[in-house]
Structure formats: structure tokens, C-alpha cells
Design goal:
The structure holds 2 protein chains of 2 kinds. Chain A is built from 13 helices and 14 strands. Chain A is an alpha/beta fold. Chain A folds into 2 domains: about 130 residues, Arc Repressor Mutant, subunit A; about 230 residues, Dna Topoisomerase Vi A Subunit, Chain: A, domain 2, CATH 3.40.1360. Chain B is built from 13 helices and 14 strands. In chain B, a hairpin with a 5-residue loop joins strand 7 and strand 8. Classes of the chains: A alpha/beta, B alpha+beta.
């Protein structure tokens, strides 16, 4: 049975070769090789309050070679060869590129036709199986997602990037004018340094709102890092936040809508990772991030415009239904460490209202600095969770 | 002050409410007229032990009088006993003039509304009622009449009458001309109706001609006229209080004891003792029925309802039978395979009921991805409208057909080139409306139908499973040939293994996957064996040895 141990520090290449050797020699004996991968779903997610993110449980997905699985295993070995070749040559690719590369190889070799992929989801699932089986990050297989979200602004941050050829580049964020810094999906290659003291990092759910705050001079007046998450945080955003948390050790706040979707899909993923990326959460979650708002009490305190969730809006109703589900099943919200966050979800389920982050802009339309004042006020008075 | 209150005749009521009895659209008008005439013919033949031979001719004569309709002519001729000249105007022109009303038998017609409604429709849309030609065994010549409904007086009006030669021993021919539209196929189609009628009447020989089509002849596959069992006395538990009081009124000075014992089924001396034990006054048993007041009758009724009586007899129900159904289904097309089930009579909602099911896959009709064709029957009459609320549809939807190898979305009708025919027979079928299109879906009845369907499904699945197993084996062999070499080549290339290792791994792989194939072959053989024994049984049913 092939399973690489979690603690092993072997290179991806040797792990992969170990598995192939195991499969081949088992076949030589006329026996069925069995491949195992971590089961990446909520069922197998354990929230560890001591580290603050989801860690994998004991459950595994087993693929034993038989008539039904022979196609999947042939595809796995085929894709593994492409990925190892990338690692050996230092090439990187996105999942989509890998899909087209696989298609190209199949077209050029008629004997491979049976394993042709019918669409990208098919090749994606093979790549995911490989990462779960080797217990490595996709990025360690030189497979990167498009850079999405995480655009950051600061007058105090300097990033040093080690590129694939070993050369280093230094980026002083204060020298970028109005352009943001776009973090890469390869957080391990980045080194951060503060220029003077950085007081906090603010992660805003909407990239647009982050941009507006910058335009109104937020980063000029405050020694901070301001970042737009752009919805559900990508691996890039999650890795970038983890980096800021670990290397700069500054307070981090998340500011977004008061609604079930933001709480359970965006904030929870940023703070504790996700079930789908169980083996990566260690490096792709920032457990120290606080929920600055919008909090239920902010509505009254700052007289924010809130409104009832429309019963006809299918996505809102779905989010609320999921919230109920999450409250009883999600180990993160069930843990007493997060009971105040769970209380917000309970509040939303009960009152069926929502309040958007942009509500801050209409508190006093004549004062363009009002949103900034409220945010700073909340940080100062420690009104966050 | 209130307006003057008037009363109207039954005919007036139905003339204004023809939609309630199946004349709600031009398309339904054609189907209902055909259905009523055929029902009457088949009932008459059965009552007189005649093997029915029906000829049906439908033509489009031109444009109809009302908007979006054609002038339709329907001529239906049977070899039944015929009707006497006196009875013709009553049967065709008078509402509720029936020999079958409430008699508790499994006949198709029950109330005596249908055919008079057809006459009314023809009269309203084409200004002339029905033409009937009839000859009974005692008549030398046939009599022909043109009959209208006297709507004010609810009686048949003979417009014209003559006698003529007819080279038939006995029989009846009716002709209607009216506004309608012709729909041949689909749920409400005329051909669907005729197919259904053919299926559940194996003893019927049918000749028919549709507009612009050739004559089609379907021969009978059984020479046995179904004997409609005689009606039985009512069971107290099937009655309502009002019915009980009326029933009691018919017995005059008879004592309660005699009334209960002779007026009902399932009441014995033992049951009478039980009534007394439960608190009914013993003296009442010998009291004359006329001496009871309403309050006392109510009390007696309550004692009866509470009493633990045997279930009603199931003798009054009639079945088509598995053998006849098996033969009859072959008349609908080229059958790939089929299964039939006739349940034993059962009491559903205190009424004796029989459910029969025939499921068949056809080579030359239906499609893989469309719902199966559903044929519903109540007392051997096809039901063609308002499918969704019918007990039969509900039962079909509640079965998990996937476990029998059929395609099915959750809680819906399964898919494939199949015909699902389900027949419910009972002397008292509870319909949802007067046009008798939907059987009321009581829980007990739906359960009973579901049991029949499940049994038929199990039989059917033997065919489907054999096919699935054969497909499985083919897929497995294909898989091994396709993916095996790619897997081994990939592993050899990744590990830079020798040719000797490659050869060993290839042999090992064939061995492993070979075992899988052997299992599949064994499963296929078992499935084939099971199917073979089922086919032998079915061949016996069809009379082939």
C-alpha cells in the first residue's frame, strides 16, 4: 500500500518514484497495487484550536487497481510524468496549461488516445489526486493558479522575491505610485521587511473598496498594509496573508460584508483554510486574522443601512441554509474558540438581514474620510472578534 | 325578494355541463364519443356471452360549425345483441337510463350518462343527434332511427324511423356527426385508446379506419368471453349513513335481524351477537324496520361501523389474467421482452379490487430517453387524461425503478422504450370526476398497485440485468485492452525499468484484470440462466411449448 508519510522530507521526485516502483513491483507479483490519498472533505477535517486551522483526519481515499480504476491510475501515472518533467526542467504551468499539454501529447501519440481528457475538470481531478497522494502542494509540483486577488498597498513594506533562476528582486511598495503589489502564488519565494513600524494589516473583502480607501489616502495617513481579498481568497491571497502574519507579526483585520456567505466562505477560509485544501492549510491560512466587521452591533453604533434578505433571492436563501448547516457541522464554528463568530452566523440566520461593507460610505456622504474614521475607531476600541 | 326559483331536468344540466363528462374540447369530444360507444358495445357483448367484433370508422367530412374544429363522422358497429326499438330512444336520448347504475359490478359503464351526452354534443354542434341501426335476435329486419335528446324533458326524441334489411344476425350500428378534432397519438390520442382497449380485451376482434389511413384489423387472442361476476350484497363498512337509511327504508316491516342478514354481506348470527355485546339493545333485533326512528337508525349504523366484521367478498371482481395479458401485449408491436402480474383480489378502502400490470419493452416503438408509455385502465377502460393525480401514476412514481435496471429521475415516471400497462378492476372504483379520467389516489390503493409493479419490475429486471451484465463484460475487456499497456508503459518509463520487468508487469496486470473478467463472465452466465427459466415460463403462458 503506497502512502508517503507526513513527516517525510523527501523530494517530490523521490516520493513519486517510490510510488511508481511500488506499483510496478506489485504488478510484477500479479497483485493489485493500492494508492492512498488524504480524503479532502469536511468529513475528514479536524479543527485544531491550538494551531487555528483545519488539519486532515485519518480518512483516506483508496484506489485499488481493478477494471474500474485502471483508467484513473493510467491517467495518474501519465500526468505524474508530465509534472515530474516540469520539476526537473524548472518549468511552471497552470492547471489549464497542463490540460492542454496532456491533450497535445495524446494527439501526438495514438496509443495514448484512451486516456484523453474530455474536459479540464477531468485533468484537474487527476492533478488533485496526485497532490493529495503525495501530500504536496500543487505549487510544489510547479503548478500554479492564476494570480487572483490580494492586491496590496503600503508605504512601509519592502518585498524581496527570489525568482526561479535564483536572482532576487526587491520591490518597495511605496514606490509603486497608485499601482498595487500583486502577490504571487508562490509565497515561499517572498521575504518581507518593514520600513519603519507597521501598525496593522487590513484585508478588505472587496478589491474595489480597498482601491477607494487608497484613493482617499488611507495608506498615506496610516502605517499599514491594505489589501483587497477579491471575494473568496485564492491560494495566493491565503499564502500572502500567512506570510504577513508570520514574518511581520502585526495585527491583521478582515473587513467585509455582514452576511452568511462572507462569514462562512470568505473569512473562515482566510482564517482556517478549507476542507478541499486540507494538506495545505498550514501554509495557506492566517489564524491570527480578526473579524473587524461589519459586526451586528456596528449597524446600531454607526447607523448603517442594512436590509432584509430577499426570500426570492436564491443565492441568499442558499447561503442562509448553508449557514444553518455550517453551525451544526462545521468544526470551525462548533469550536468554542470561535463561538463569537458562530454567534454572528446565528444572528444572521435568525434575523435574516445583511449589511454591506459599502454601507460605511453612506454614513456621512459629505465626509469622504468617514469610512476610515470608523475603521480606525473600531481598531482603537478593539471592536472586533 | 329572491328571484323565481326553477328546477331543470337532468338533460338540461348535462347539456350545459358537458365538459364534466368528457366534452371539454373538440379533441376530447371525439375520444369520448368513441369511448362511450365502444364501452357500451363491449359491455353488451359480455352480458350476452358474445365474442365481440367491432368495426370503427372515423372520417373528417369538412370544416366544423364552430371555430377551429372539423366536422367529424364516427361509425361504430358491433355484433352484440342489439337493442329493441322501444329501448333505443331511452338509451341514446335519456340521461341516467341505465341497466348498470349502482349495481356493484365490474362493468365499464356505470351510470348511463355517457352515450346520451355524445348525442347531446352532436345535437348541439351539428343540429342532429345520433343515427342508430339495431337488430335483435327476435327481429326479422333491422330498425334504423334518428334520435335527439329532448333537453327539457330528458327523454329520447325519435326524428325518423324505418325498417330495413341488414345482413347481420344481431348487432348495433351508431353514427355521430359533430364538431371535433382528431388526435391520433399521445396521451389523449384515438390510437392510444384503441391500443389500450385491445390490450385489456384479449377476446376482442377490432377493425378500424382512421382518416386518410388504411383499414387495420386486430385479431382476438382469446376465445373466452370474460364472465363478469354477479354483484354481491353491500358491505356495511362501504356505506354512508344516508345510504344505510335509504337501504333500510326498502325493507319495510322486515325485522332488523332479517334486514341485516339478508340486506348485507358478511353479517352472520355471530356478528349480531357481537352487536348486542357491544351495547345494542337485544330487543331491537326483532323490531320491524318501520318502527325505528332516525335516531335509532343512526345508533344501529354506528354499532355496525364499530363492529369487527369480515372484509367484503372479493368474488365480484374480474381479472384479465396473466396468460391473456401476455398474449394480448404482443398485439401492440414487436415485443423484446415483457412481464405480467395479476394480483389476487384484495380489499382496498373496503372495496374488492384487483390490480394487473403488464410491462413490456418494444423493438419498434418508444425511445431510450423518453418516459415510458403509460396505459392506465379502470374496469378495462383506458384512462387518458389528468395523468398526474391518478393513483396509478402515483404508484409508478413511488417505485425505485433504478433497482430493476431502468432509467428514472427521482419520483418520476421511468424512461425507455417500454409500455407500462396498469389495470385496476373493482365494482366500486372511486373516480375523481364524472368523466372517469383519474382514479382517486388513496394510500391503500397506491400501495396495492405498487406491490404489483414491484413484482413485475423484478421479472423485467432479469432481462435488463442480463443485458447490463453482457455490457459490463464487454466494457471490462475493452478497458483492459485500452488502459493496461498505457499504465505499464508509464510506470516503466518513470522507473526506467528493464524490458524483463515490463513483461512481468504486463503478465501480472492481465492476471489481475483477467480475474475481474472471469467474475463478470460468471455473473453473465447466472443472469442468462435465470432469464432462460423465465422465458420458458412466459412461453408456456403464450401457449408455445
Amino acid at each position: 500500500m503506497a502512502r508517503t508519510s507526513k513527516s517525510s522530507r523527501k523530494s517530490v521526485q523521490s516520493k513519486a518514484e517510490e510510488i511508481c516502483q511500488y506499483m510496478l513491483s506489485t504488478l510484477e507479483k500479479g497483485q493489485r497495487p493500492i494508492l492512498e490519498a488524504v480524503r479532502c472533505n469536511l468529513d475528514n477535517s479536524i479543527y485544531d484550536p491550538s494551531v487555528g486551522y483545519f488539519v486532515p483526519g485519518d480518512k483516506v481515499v483508496k484506489s485499488e487497481l481493478n477494471v474500474s480504476s485502471v483508467q484513473k491510475l493510467a491517467r495518474t501515472v501519465f500526468m505524474l510524468e508530465i509534472l515530474l518533467n516540469n520539476i526537473n526542467t524548472g518549468a511552471t504551468n497552470t492547471k489549464r496549461e497542463l490540460y492542454y499539454m496532456a491533450k497535445g501529447l495524446v494527439k501526438s501519440d495514438p496509443s495514448l488516445k484512451p486516456i484523453d481528457f474530455d474536459g479540464q475538470p477531468e485533468s484537474d481531478s487527476v492533478i488533485e489526486f496526485i497532490t493529495d497522494m503525495l501530500e504536496v502542494y500543487r505549487e510544489e509540483l510547479n503548478c500554479f493558479a492564476d494570480d487572483r486577488g490580494g492586491q496590496s498597498y503600503s508605504q512601509n513594506l519592502i518585498v524581496t522575491e527570489t525568482m526561479n533562476d535564483g536572482e532576487k528582486a526587491t520591490i518597495d511598495l511605496s514606490k509603486l505610485g497608485t499601482a498595487p503589489f500583486q502577490p504571487k502564488n508562490q509565497p515561499t519565494a517572498l521575504k518581507l521587511k518593514a520600513k519603519g513600524k507597521i501598525d496593522f494589516c487590513l484585508i478588505v473583502e472587496s478589491q474595489g473598496t480597498a482601491n477607494t480607501l487608497v484613493t482617499r489616502g488611507f495608506t498615506k495617513r496610516n502605517n499599514c498594509i491594505l489589501m483587497g481579498a477579491k471575494g473568496v481568497p485564492s491560494n495566493g491571497v491565503r499564502g500572502w496573508c500567512k506570510l504577513i502574519q508570520d514574518q511581520l507579526k502585526i495585527p491583521m483585520y478582515f473587513f467585509g460584508d455582514l452576511d452568511a456567505y462572507t462569514m462562512q466562505n470568505i473569512f473562515r477560509t482566510l482564517k482556517a483554510g478549507s476542507a478541499a485544501s486540507l494538506i495545505r492549510n498550514k501554509d495557506f491560512s492566517a489564524p491570527d486574522v480578526k473579524f473587524l466587521g461589519i459586526l451586528p452591533e456596528d449597524i446600531k453604533e454607526y447607523d448603517l443601512n442594512s436590509y432584509k434578505v430577499k426570500e426570492k433571492d436564491a443565492s441568499e436563501v442558499r447561503a442562509l441554509k448553508k449557514a444553518r448547516d455550517v453551525l451544526s457541522n462545521d468544526p470551525f464554528f462548533k469550536d468554542k474558540k470561535n463561538k463569537k463568530l458562530a454567534a454572528i452566523l446565528n444572528f444572521l440566520v435568525k434575523n435574516k438581514i445583511r449589511c454591506e461593507q459599502q454601507a460605511l460610505f453612506s454614513v456621512n456622504p459629505k465626509d469622504p474620510l468617514m469610512p476610515e474614521k470608523i475603521i480606525l475607531d473600531k481598531i482603537k476600541n478593539k471592536v472586533f472578534i | 325578494m329572491a328571484n323565481k326559483i326553477t328546477s331543470s331536468s337532468t338533460a338540461e344540466y348535462f347539456a350545459k355541463n358537458l365538459q364534466q363528462v368528457g366534452f371539454s374540447s373538440p379533441t376530447k369530444a371525439v375520444l369520448t364519443t368513441l369511448k362511450e360507444a365502444v364501452d357500451n358495445s363491449l359491455d353488451a357483448c359480455e352480458d350476452n356471452m358474445i365474442l365481440p367484433e367491432l368495426s370503427i370508422q372515423i372520417e373528417r367530412l369538412g370544416k366544423g360549425g364552430s371555430k377551429n374544429s372539423d366536422l367529424i363522422q364516427i361509425i361504430i358497429e358491433d355484433n352484440g345483441p342489439g337493442l329493441s326499438a322501444e329501448n333505443l330512444p331511452r338509451v341514446f336520448g335519456e340521461y341516467l337510463a341505465s341497466s348498470k347504475f349502482g349495481r356493484g359490478r365490474c362493468s365499464r359503464g356505470q351510470q348511463g350518462i355517457g352515450i346520451s351526452a355524445a348525442t347531446t354534443w352532436a345535437q348541439l354542434t351539428h343540429a342532429s343527434g345520433v343515427r342508430v341501426k339495431s337488430k335483435t335476435a327476435s327481429m326479422k329486419k333491422a330498425v334504423e332511427m334518428y334520435i335527439d335528446v329532448d333537453i327539457k324533458g330528458n327523454k329520447g326524441l325519435v326524428k325518423k324511423k324505418e325498417t330495413l334489411e341488414w345482413d347481420k344476425k344481431t348487432g348495433l350500428q351508431v353514427e355521430f356527426k359533430f364538431d371535433g378534432r382528431i388526435q391520433l397519438n399521445g396521451d389523449g390520442g384515438l390510437l392510444t385508446y384503441l391500443e389500450g382497449t385491445t390490450l385489456v380485451n384479449p377476446h376482442l376482434t377490432l377493425k378500424y379506419k382512421m382518416p386518410d389511413k388504411e383499414w387495420v384489423e386486430v385479431e382476438r387472442v382469446s376465445t373466452e368471453v370474460p364472465v363478469v361476476p354477479p354483484s354481491v350484497l353491500p358491505h356495511p363498512h362501504t356505506m354512508k349513513l344516508g345510504e344505510f337509511v335509504t337501504h333500510a327504508g326498502l325493507f319495510g316491516r322486515t325485522s332488523l335481524k332479517i334486514f341485516l342478514k339478508t340486506g348485507f354481506s358478511r353479517i352472520t348470527d355471530h356478528s349480531l351477537k357481537l352487536l348486542v355485546k357491544n351495547g345494542m339493545k337485544k330487543a331491537w333485533l326483532n323490531k320491524a324496520m318501520t318502527q325505528f326512528d332516525d335516531k335509532e337508525l343512526k345508533q344501529i349504523f354506528a354499532f355496525l361501523i364499530d363492529a369487527d366484521l369480515s372484509s367484503p367478498s372479493t368474488k365480484s371482481v374480474l381479472t384479465v389474467g396473466e396468460d391473456s395479458l401476455a398474449k394480448s401485449i404482443q398485439r401492440l408491436g414487436e415485443v423484446d421482452f415483457f412481464s405480467v402480474v395479476t394480483r389476487k383480489p384484495k380489499i382496498c378502502d373496503f372495496k374488492p379490487t384487483v390490480v394487473e400490470v403488464a410491462l413490456a419493452r418494444f423493438i419498434d416503438r418508444g425511445e431510450e430517453d423518453k418516459s415510458v408509455q403509460l396505459l392506465r385502465f379502470a374496469n378495462r377502460v383506458p384512462l387518458q387524461f389528468d395523468k398526474s393525480s391518478c393513483a396509478i401514476t402515483r404508484a409508478i412514481e413511488s417505485v425505485n425503478w433504478k433497482s430493476y435496471g431502468l432509467k428514472q429521475s427521482k419520483n418520476s415516471i421511468p424512461q425507455g422504450p417500454y409500455i407500462f400497462a396498469v389495470s385496476v378492476t373493482s365494482p366500486f372504483i372511486k373516480f375523481k370526476n364524472a368523466s372517469k379520467e383519474t382514479i382517486d389516489a388513496s394510500e391503500e390503493l397506491v400501495d396495492e398497485i405498487r406491490l404489483a409493479l414491484q413484482k413485475a419490475g423484478q421479472k423485467l429486471s432479469r432481462h435488463i440485468k442480463k443485458e447490463a451484465k453482457a455490457e459490463d463484460l464487454e466494457r471490462k475487456i475493452r478497458h483492459i485492452e485500452k488502459f493496461g499497456p498505457i499504465l505499464v508503459n508509464g510506470l516503466v518509463s518513470m522507473t526506467k525499468a528493464s524490458q524483463a520487468r515490463k513483461k512481468r508487469a504486463e503478465d501480472g496486470l492481465s492476471k489481475i484484470l483477467g480475474i475481474d473478467t472471469e467474475v463478470a463472465i460468471a455473473e453473465l452466465e447466472v443472469a442468462e440462466e435465470k432469464l432462460k427459466s423465465l422465458k420458458v415460463k412466459q412461453a408456456e403462458k403464450l401457449g408455445e411449448s
